[in-house]
Amino acid sequence: MNTNNDKKLLENYLDNALQIGLIGPMAIDEGEVEQTSRRLNLKLICVDGGLLNTKINYLSVGDGDSAQRECDINFPENKDFTDLEGTLQLLPSQVELVHAFGFLGGRLDHQLVVLQNFFNFAHQANCQIHLHGQEKIDIFPPGEHLVTTNEKFSLLSMQDATISITGACLYQVKSSPLIALSGLGLSNQGSGEFKISCNQPFSIFYFSE
Fold first, then answer.
1. What is the mean pLDDT of residues 178-205?
2. Do the beta carbons of residue 201 and residue 141 sit within 8 Å?
3. Pairing mode of beta strands 43-47, 59-62
């Protein structure tokens, strides 16, 4: 594993792209991946087992244990980080938005680690994550963000934070403490555009009943 060479390979492949797509090992909607990547002209990267979710030879990153083959950027199998974590750390600094397909579902311990990997990256890289799947989740870096939705949603943080929500939604708060994974942000209702300010990374889970 040569980090500098791996970063250079990834930079050349992404070619200054501001938005990219990652394909993970869990179930995906192939039509959604194709439509989204075409519409946004996304460069796609397979994270290890994500190779099994596509027949297209996208750049691959990982230790190859799930894919059962060597990846283009190959991590050692005995390591103390996830393939997703390693992939995120190699992404160039210009990336502003990651579309993630195939990262929801499966073992709960894996799911929690995946979400924490994305939260950490959002914070470190000032980057937004959009997780596609049966659940739709956006992860935002700290700061002010405009969100537009008419769906029900829950807002959660993995860390204690201070939050403000103002605009077109049912429940609004101003400079309120948000305890990590607490009930304050659960089950809100959007009705257009609203602004969220938070001093920690946070996530929005969209849902319909």
1. 96
2. yes
3. parallel
Q: What is the pLDDT of residues 44-92, one digit of tens each?
A: 999 999 988 888 889 999 998 887 888 999 998 889 999 999 999 999 9
Is this model's pTM higher than 0.70 or not?
yes
Rounded to whole angstroms, the Cα distance separating 102 from 8 reads 25
Domain ranges of the chain: 3-140, 143-207
CB 133 within 8 A of CB 104: yes
209 band by pLDDT with thresholds 50, 70 and 90? low
Answer CATH for 143-207 from 2.60.120.320, 3.40.630.30, 1.10.3290.10, 3.30.1060.10: 2.60.120.320
Largest CA distance in the chain: 51
- Residue 66 burial by Cβ neighbours in a 10 Å radius (0-12, 13-18, 19+): middle
Task: Check: CB of residue 23 under 8 Å from CB of residue 58.
Answer: yes
Three-state DSSP at 20 gives strand
Q: Are 36 and 136 in contact (CB under 8 A)?
A: no
